[in-house]
Amino acid sequence: MFKNEVTLLKKENLRQMENVKEDDKDTIYEIMKSMSVFKVNSYDAQVIQRDLIGMAQDSELRGADLKNVIGNDIKSFSNEIIKNSYGPSIIEILLSFFTLLSGYLFGMHILPAYLQYQSLSWQSTPVIYLLYVGVVLINFIADGIITP
After folding, report:
1. How would DSSP label each residue in the chain?
2. What is the pTM of this model?
3. Which of 13, 15, 43, 52 has the fewest Cβ atoms nearer than 10 Å?
4. How far is CA 20 from the centre of its chain?
């Protein structure tokens, strides 16, 4: 089966995370949470996570934890990592948007089919498609930019 580098890195990172202390896991998750698709592409995010896992394992060998190594200001540490990355991928952002859009459109067609099956039919107009695209766009922006 064909697997790309991002998938392989993700699988390796999950395997390596099992060997990391809980406090360091929390620190890594906190740093990774700030890296949305609008800031860092998927490959860079996985490489960054791999490096953070390595830092956590190295700090454990020295008897410290990751938070002591990187300092108390995790937000500025995260921002420095983001600034030094290659940045977002436009194609990845578009694919994420269209994935979310297709999920909403799929749900939009399932609900009317269910209601029609229950003899509760309702008429939809073409304007509803604009509404759904708007809702998806707002949701996508909120999840990607505002939430982290």
Report:
1. ----HHHHHHHHHHHHHTTS-HHHHHHHHHHHHT--TTTS-HHHHHHHHHHHHHHHHHHHHTT--HHHHH-S-HHHHHHHHHHHS----HHHHHHHHHHHHHHHHHHHHHHHHHHHHTT------THHHHHHHHHHHHHHHIIIII--
2. 0.70
3. 15
4. 21
- Any idea which residue has 């939809």 for tokens? 124
**Per-10-residue mean pLDDT for the chain, 148 residues long?**
75 92 90 80 90 92 87 86 84 82 74 61 66 78 65
- 60, 57, 54, 1: CA torsion to nearest 10: -170
The structure tokens listed for 19 are 């060997």
For residue 10, how many other CB atoms are within 10 A of its CB? 18
In the numeric block, which tokens belong to residue 121? Answer: 């039919």
